[in-house]
Specification:
The protein is built from eight helices and nine strands. It is an alpha+beta fold and 242 residues long.
Amino acid sequence: MGTKERQREKKKTEEPVKDKTEPSVAVEQTTASDDSAQIPEIVVKVEDGTNATDTIETAVVEPEQMMDTGAAAVTEIVPRWGNIGEAEWMYNIPTRSQDMVLWAEEWGDFLLEWAEFEKIHVLSVSAFISKPPFKDILGKVKAFRSIGNSLVGKDVAAWLDRNREQLRVYWRPLGEWADLVYRWALDTGILRLDVKSLVIQEAEQDFSRLPEEDIHRIMALLVERGFAEWVDKKAGAVVVKV
């Protein structure tokens, strides 16, 4: 065998062997139509290099699966123990004093969460006994006062009347409200603040729903912290310092 023949033979042995059995995958998107709706289909074709009549696998995607379904808006919250059907014992006032304290604390924690969710600052006994899930508690009026006393003892609520029918709930401390009002004033450029204007003209702001006496206290906190100066202390009017 000559030199050229040997070189050609060597070149043949070094060439890679192609795998003719490896299938190729082609993806096409077609649309199937009927009288009522068009359902898009994702068609996956698997073709063998040696056989053009191989099986075609089809996956149909329903329109509902292709829609971007966001989370439903939460309209109410429930206690972690559930409703009366799930935890009936929590809707009965305990008879033992020790159990009563723990029971009132549990409900008090939930009432704070509920009040914040509902943006309620003053809760009346009439509202308490008519709102779920509180309306399902047996002995609702007694429960309202027991839960209220528990919150008052933790300095996160205060009774507004002697008969304990109106409860001011502090789900956010006044100090934090003062910080929010101050930042809002700087962001908007509204530097002259007074109680009546905040309640009437800024109704879309959360702090506008606060009791007027609390807004007056917030103005006083801004002055005490050096963030504002009194313009009319009696009217609760200040000028915010920049």
